[in-house]
Amino acid sequence: MKHSDSFATTKRTNPVSSEPILAIDNLCKSYGEVNILKEVNVAIDPGDFLVLVGPSGCGKSTLLSCIGGLTEVTSGTVKIDGYDVTHTDPAKRDIAMVFQSYALFPNMSVEKNIGFGLEVRKVPEAERTPKVRDVADLLKINQLLDRSPAQLSGGQRQRVAMGRALVRDPKLFLFDEPLSNLDAKLRVTMRTEIKRLHQRLGASIIYVTHDQIEAMTLATKIVVMKDGVVQQVGSPREIYDTPMNTFVADFMGAPAMNLLEAHVEMVDGKLRIEVARDDLQGPLVLFDPAPPESVAKHRGILKIGLRPEALTDVGSRARASDQQADCLLDVVEPAGSDTYAVIQMGGSEVIARLHGDVDADSGDTLRIAFDLSKISYFDAEDGQRL
Fold first, then answer.
1. Residue 323: count of CB within 10 angstroms of its CB
2. Whether residue 86 is found in the same domain as residue 179
3. Last-in-domain residue among 251, 281, 306
4. Do the Cβ atoms of 255 and 308 come closer than 8 Å?
5. Structure confidence by residue, pLDDT tens digits, 48-87
6. Beta bridge partners of residue 84, listed in sequence order
């Protein structure tokens, strides 16, 4: 944003550097005997969109607050662009934050709200006004500049809050569940807008959410957290395809990954997978021709993971290599382009993603195709990926 006339169309260019834009090393945060964050280690490159995701109380907002300097860390370090800012005042960290609450000044116009940070920093009005107009144009709120926050919808207020952050052109943007107060349809719209802004500007963003759909659609890198501990760091595809434990497998994905207790052993060069079923059809038996070496050596009980799309009705998405079995449908849930069916097996409710036009109802027996190309294996005791 060094040249206001090109802000809306020019992607940010980051200088070539061996330093990550953000590096968190062994960060811990405790309140008395209560440990909120436990040895967190995270690093991202300039231009990354990092999403911190996890259930309520996992520590993701506390971590964001430590990055922003709003919460004092107990131990560990926070570096931004190579500089140790662990104990630096928030105003000197070159960051901008967008909160769940819009935190707009009700007595100021939209234009004044967006430009307030620049005004505080004594940026001349002749320089400040074009920057505010450029940001407003980028966010499609230039027609709202004369209005007060009370005259805006929730989505418009969130755009103003984002504009106040964007106009500063900081090294790092911090978003703390910015879409939580919006209705479902507007959340989808704003999610698209944020994604588009990141693609256009190439900004470095840390984004907190409990919504794993937001995490999957927005992030270039995801940090999954539970009880103050980082469970896995990776791209959305890595998190989805190769979860490192059963918590990540169950939390990331809608519907979640199916996790089944199974008995496995090698038979004639293939891994025989046997899953008990609660109906009278006998156990489900599948064969994996190329299991991981750690699994091939295993004989006994473990957990297998299959995404709902790996179970489908024969003749729609099924492939010639898929293995098939008749399954009793417990519940059938039409959802437009897809139909989800619940099947009882392995002591769990298994969800199959069927074609939207499938002719099936609760209580029917349907031929299901199983795609084992992306099957996951987990230790039955500690839930870690094998």
1. 16
2. yes
3. 251
4. yes
5. 999 999 999 999 999 999 999 999 999 999 999 999 999 9
6. 79
